[in-house]
Amino acid sequence: MNRNEALELLSQHLPNKNLIKHSIAVEAGMRKMAQFLGEKEEERWAMSGLLHDLDYEETKDDFPKHGLVTGEILHKEGFDDKEILDAIVMHSGNIPATTDMGKALYAVDPTTGFITACVLMSPTKNIHFLDMGFMMKRFKEKRFAAGANREQIASATENFPLSLEDFITIVLEGMKENSEELGLGKL
Fold first, then answer.
1. 15 found inside a domain
2. What is the CATH classification number for the domain harbouring 61?
3. What is the spatial distance between Cα 31 and Cα 33, in angstroms, rounded to a whole number?
């Protein structure tokens, strides 16, 4: 499956354009994590991010099925990359993340939501001018971007040789590369 086919599948299953933008943000963050970790197949990592919430509309009220339904949908499409499918299930937290791809997806997913909230609350409303000090201050505020699970984000520091600031920077840099597609400003 190529990126255009994946985007078409997303548009069929996710009527909410913000969920598609979120998926693109996670795709970008996963690509950067793959680069950081020296993974040779970064496009596979990116694909896991792009497809990770494919079943969101179907499973939002039955969260234990989140990720599993995506696997069923993708299987019907002839997609059978076990590592990606496993990472998608792992990102939901319904089973522990045991692979680097799964661990990264688990952490990158909420980080993109946190970064997006920071952009929208920043004075410039532009991802290219987002300040790490601003973000770290907001990270400590539990009510700010409350849906972005801080423990899940911080899990990256337990699973990879990164500080929290370094991890957020990696995801941020990935999102900057797709900033116009995400509607988060241009340089």
1. yes
2. 1.10.3210
3. 5
Looking at the domain assignment, is residue 187 inside a domain?
no
Number of domains observed in the structure of the chain: 1
Q: What is the 3-state secondary structure (H, E, C) of the chain?
A: CCHHHHHHHHHHHCCCHHHHHHHHHHHHHHHHHHHHHCCCCHHHHHHHHHHCCCCHHHHCCCHHHCCHHHHHHHHHCCCCCHHHHHHHHHHCCCCCCCCHHHHHHHHHHHHHHHHHHHHHHCCCCCHHHCCHHHHHHHHCCCCCCCCCCHHHHHHHHHHCCCCHHHHHHHHHHHHHHCHHHHCCCCC
Question: Residue 91's domain spans which residues?
Answer: 3-180
Within a domain: 16: yes
pLDDT in tens, the chain (187 residues): 999 999 999 999 999 999 999 999 999 999 999 999 999 999 999 999 999 999 999 999 998 899 999 999 999 999 989 999 999 999 988 888 999 999 999 999 999 999 999 999 999 999 999 999 999 999 999 999 999 999 999 999 999 999 999 999 999 999 999 999 999 998 7
Assess if residue 185 is contained within a domain. no
Amino acid at 163: S
Going by C-alpha positions, the residue among 93, 21, 19, 108 that lies closest to residue 57 is 19
